[in-house]
Amino acid sequence: MTSPPRDFSRLCIHTMTTKPWAFEEAVRRYAAAGVAGVTVWRSDFADLGPAAAGELVRSHGLSVVSLCRGGFFPADSAGGRARAVDDNLRCIDEAAALGAPHVVLVCGSAPGLALAESRRQIAEGIAAVLPHAAASGVKLAIEPLHPMYAADRSAVSTMSQARAICSQLKSPWLGIAVDVYHTWWDDRLEDEIRRSGSEGTLLAFHISDWRTPVADILEDRGVMGEGCIPIRQIRGWVQEAGFDGFNEVEIFSRRHWASEQARYLEGIKAAYLAHS
Ligand code: ZN
After folding, report:
1. What is the pTM of this model?
2. Residue 105 belongs to some domain of the structure
3. Rounded to the nearest 5°, which phi and psi values hold at 175?
4. For residue 182, how far is its CA from the centre of ligand 1 (angstroms)?
């Protein structure tokens, strides 16, 4: 059995996890709490701009772990697909200015399009922006999403589908973000993680927990230990596959957002040591 994390040196928090805190406050509070990294969301730097946001993070001794998020490539018109490519080019520029090593891709899905066609358009969209990602020194991380989001958020539901796109496009600038919330149910997960590790495409690892029943498909994630995901076991698979990056806590939860955020952050730290 994989041992618990010894300290917070690999703990990263997505700013969305503590949504009630404005960006500057989140960075200051994370730094004071001993968190090592932060994953930034594009809305965080609407006022500040990406370069100043990156400076702010680093000036607090934190690492910028990634930028969330690009993607949403499929559309039922050529114009819609072109707009998605433009937005992803901008997102790559923002990641470069922020100093983020990769952009997480929520790949998208167009209701009414066959999932296979959405996946074809996703591969086409990624192919269109990969040269710019490479030139900018920014990697792209395909994040498979739980199949409950297949109609409108991601036609990529499994590691296997993400690996197929990576194999098709064969670029050192393209890889995969493994999120336990989206992938824990997959009976092929251990094998897929091992394969992804040997192919050099494991770029990120996101953690939270699955509550039962799920009260809201977007905003009812649990803190580690509040649900049924074998987080430590999956972290072990990811580590054995060669991943040595951050463990990124990414929790969207109206229930926790309504609570006192400083106490919530302390709870996340305790849960991180006890359950991840
Ligand atoms: Zn995620």
Report:
1. 0.97
2. yes
3. -155, -155
4. 8
